[in-house]
Design goal:
Strand order of the largest sheet: 3-4-6-5
Number of helices: 11
CATH topology of the largest domain: Rhopdopsin 7-helix transmembrane proteins
CATH superfamily of the largest domain: Rhodopsin 7-helix transmembrane proteins
Radius of gyration: 32 Å
Number of domains: 3
Order of helices and strands: HHHHHHEEHHHHHEEEEEEEEEEEE
Oligomer: single chain
């Protein structure tokens, strides 16, 4: 294998392995960024985090479309850019995402500087929303030039107008992609960092102080990362404008270097999540909460399915032996609780999903309330729909449920009891609870609620 063939092979492998790794890790990180910035109140109320959320959305689009098409074309030799409309759309999205992403990062650094200066009034969500919208529209109109002057006339996606090619080489790439956004980012992130260091000497709420300092460090390190990954590509591109060669080996070597630098440039769209996780303690805490909450829900679903399976198995076992059992209450739509009793209060035994009572003198199994065969009844619904609540049996025979989730992110304080007339509202708890335990104490005359995924649990 000649040197020329080795270089071409190395270029293809770099696109496949390095490119796919950047795309997958970047998309996953971008999704986590969006979840964390939108679920954590500390960040959700700040305009800087709003800009960073918008950056994550744009970066995901850039990785899924522009980088994926590049990996297909240059890595797997499936050049779908040979089609005219694919060439135009891919270049349009790449140009738009690049300009919008860098502009949003610039706006984030400017906003962070304003939020810690005398011009704090300009740092608000309404103004940020307008900037996001206007910026997207402006760069969208600007990028329409790519739809006009890019095409694939010979099966190669290229610029078909010499004047536009000169404009791209002399202004768009070195200035709009490089010098202008990098200068703006670095300047305002350093000013914001300076302001954050002087905030400690002012009388400012400690929560706001901690939040602003964390956001400032996050944006500063993000800007440093973007600068490191962008500058090599811009410098090499400017250098290559004045270099011409007809040697196959040199061309292959230049293509390999260019591919590596382009992929490093794409890593600037994929690395923000990992940067924020390293430099922000509050960001890491929210990340662990999101992951643990997802694991808890998966565990709850698994235990619910297991309880249902056990219930069905017990039903068939007892029914086959002509035992008579009866459902006394349905406290959750996914878990049935069956009580089997013969009237003897001794030898209680707790099993998965069941409370059974046995006697050495009477082998018959009877219900505590009737002698009917087992069946499922649809009873009166709760006054408030909820999940992940706690329940307990009271001394008077009534069933109490307390707390629970009424939306994926909201718990309730509400409490209800079940009697022969249905569910009745009773005084609520002091705090909201979900995924907690409710235990009857003092001979079932009092109830203790403990534990929760909410802050007051």
């Amino acid at each position: 294998m000649s040197t020329h063939e080795i270089l071409i092979f190395a270029t293809r492998q770099a696109n496949i392995y390095f490119g796919l790794s950047i795309m997958i890790s970047g998309v996953i990180g971008g999704i986590f960024n969006i979840i964390i910035f939108t679920t954590l109140k500390t960040f959700r109320e700040t305009t800087c985090a709003f800009y960073l959320t918008a950056v994550s959305v744009v970066n995901i689009i850039q990785l899924l479309i522009a980088l994926f098409v590049r990996v297909l074309s240059d890595g797997f030799s499936t050049d779908i850019r040979r089609t005219s409309w694919v060439c135009k759309i891919q270049i349009y999205i790449s140009v738009w995402c690049n300009l919008v992403s860098t502009t949003y990062v610039c706006l984030a650094t400017i906003d962070q500087f304003l939020s810690m200066s005398h011009y704090r009034r300009f740092s608000n969500l309404r103004f940020a929303q307008r900037c996001i919208f206007i910026t997207g529209i402006f760069w969208g109109l600007y990028s329409t030039c790519s739809l006009i002057y890019w095409d694939a006339p010979f099966g190669i996606c290229m610029i078909i107008n010499s004047n536009f090619a000169m404009y791209v080489n002399r202004f768009q790439l070195p200035i709009l992609y490089g010098a202008l956004p990098l200068t703006t980012m670095i300047t305002f992130s350093l000013l914001a960092f300076y302001n954050a260091r002087t905030l400690i000497s002012r009388q400012i709420n400690i929560v706001r102080l901690s939040r602003d300092r964390q956001l400032t460090v996050m944006t500063l390190v993000h800007v440093v990362f973007v600068t490191i990954t962008t500058l090599p590509y811009i410098i090499y591109f400017i250098y290559s404008l004045n270099q011409t060669t007809n040697e196959r080996e040199q061309i292959a070597r230049n293509n390999l270097i260019y591919t590596i630098l382009v992929l490093i440039l794409y890593s600037s769209y994929a690395g923000s999540f990992y940067i924020y996780s390293c430099v922000s303690k509050r960001f890491r805490q929210q990340l662990f909460f999101v992951i643990s909450n997802a694991c808890i829900k998966q565990y709850q679903q698994w235990t619910n399915k297991r309880a249902i399976a056990i219930s069905l198995l017990a039903y068939y076992i007892y029914h086959s032996k002509k035992y008579e059992v009866s459902l006394i209450s349905i406290l959750d739509t996914t878990i049935g609780a069956i009580t089997i009793s013969n009237g003897d209060d001794n030898n209680d035994q707790l099993t998965d999903g069941f409370t059974t009572k046995t006697s050495s003198t009477n082998k018959n199994v009877q219900t505590s309330t009737s002698t009917q065969s087992v069946f499922w009844n649809i009873d009166k619904p709760l006054n408030t729909a909820r999940s992940s609540f706690g329940s307990a049996l009271l001394a008077n025979g009534q069933v109490l449920i307390a707390g629970g989730q009424i939306t994926p992110t909201t718990a309730t304080q509400g409490t209800e009891v079940y009697s022969s007339t249905g569910w009745q509202l009773v005084p609520s708890m002091t705090f909201s609870h979900a995924y907690h335990t409710v235990t009857a104490v003092a001979n079932n005359t009092k109830v203790l609620a403990a534990g929760s995924t909410t802050p007051h649990g």
